[in-house]
Amino acid sequence: MTAAVIDVATLVSWIRQAQPLIILDARARLNDAAAGRQLWQQGHVPGAHHADMDRDLATPPTPAGGRHPLPDKATFTAILQRWGVTPRHRVVVYDDTGGQIAAARAWWMLRWAGLTSAHVLDGGWQAWQQAGEPIETTVPQHTASDWQPQFDDSLIASEDDVASGKFALFDARGAERYRGEVEPIDPVAGHIPGARNIPGASLLTADKTLLPTAALQRQLPPTDNAIAYCGSGISACHLVLACASVGQPLPRLYPGSWSAWCRDSRHPVATGSE
Fold first, then answer.
1. How far apart are CA 233 and CA 65, in angstroms?
2. Model confidence over 226-242: pLDDT tens digits?
3. What is the 3-state secondary structure (H, E, C) of 155-213?
4. What pLDDT score was predicted for residue 1?
5. Pairing with 134, which of 15, 69, 105, 226 sits 20 to 30 Å away (CA)?
6. So what's the architecture of 154-261 in CATH?
7. CATH 3.40.250.10 residue ranges for the chain
8. CA pair distance 92, 24, nearest whole angstrom
9. SS3 (DSSP) at 226
10. What one-character DSSP code corresponds to residue 200?
């Protein structure tokens, strides 16, 4: 794997070497906005800040922006400064869903802000626990920064890009939601016509680590000129992370994803298999 994803041993080494390091706990639950902070309060990697999926990694839902719109640049800059992030820091993010909710989203947003030294902990919280590493409940002490990020909007795909037919589309939701057989969250079931389904779970082993490189390369299609989406722009970032981990071109993210697309009656909807 490339530096986009690191293992527990690497993180422990950085901590012991007193590397300039910021750790973010991005555990979250889609159906419970308070759950992530509660999990963090119950125990976290020493020094980890809580990165709230709904308050730090998104703004309130809108029809055009979907269920988890990106915060504007000024807002996210203030959040990064609050965490103390600067370009000299390594930032390591973890969750307990193999990166799907919402470590990869935080990683992608750090990349969007221009931070190249952003990493996701492979296996996340479970890997840290299984390694027998220490856990704490204290609030970390840190110094706020004055970093002014240089955002890279080329990582973002617009609704017009998605509708243009010029890009390969990859849907990271589960197969049943993609086929339109179930839709537990959004008002319309199905997928964007022409999209290929690559469920996030298909990129993970049973212990929530990314598949080995060779297996990931077999699982991932060519990602040149591609756009990734999911339900609301969270788990699609995991697909982008998987591409980064094997050195493939990164699909652009459609932040509104299905939750924005399906709310516009002008947009076509497909069901069934590809």
1. 10
2. 999 999 999 999 999 99
3. HECCHHHHHCCCCEEEECCCHHHHHCCCCCCCCCCCECCCCEECCHHHHECCCCCECCH
4. 43
5. 105
6. 3-Layer(aba) Sandwich (3.40)
7. 5-151, 154-261
8. 6
9. strand
10. G
Dihedral pair phi/psi, residue 105, rounded to 5°? -65, -45
User: Could you tell me the two tokens for 21?
Assistant: 């390091």
Give this prediction's pTM: 0.97
pLDDT digits (tens, 9 = 90+) for 49-74: 999 999 999 999 999 999 999 999 99
The tens digit of pLDDT for each residue in 140-155 reads 988 999 999 999 999 9
CA distance linking residue 129 with residue 81, whole number of Å: 29
**Domain at 5-151, CATH from 3.40.250.10, 3.40.630.30, 1.25.40.180, 3.40.1160.10:** 3.40.250.10
Q: What mean pLDDT do residues 2-10 have?
A: 91
Question: Which of these is catalytic: 230, 237, 243, 262?
Answer: 230
Active site (annotated) includes residue 230? yes
- Report the pLDDT value the prediction gives residue 273, as an integer from 0 to 100: 86
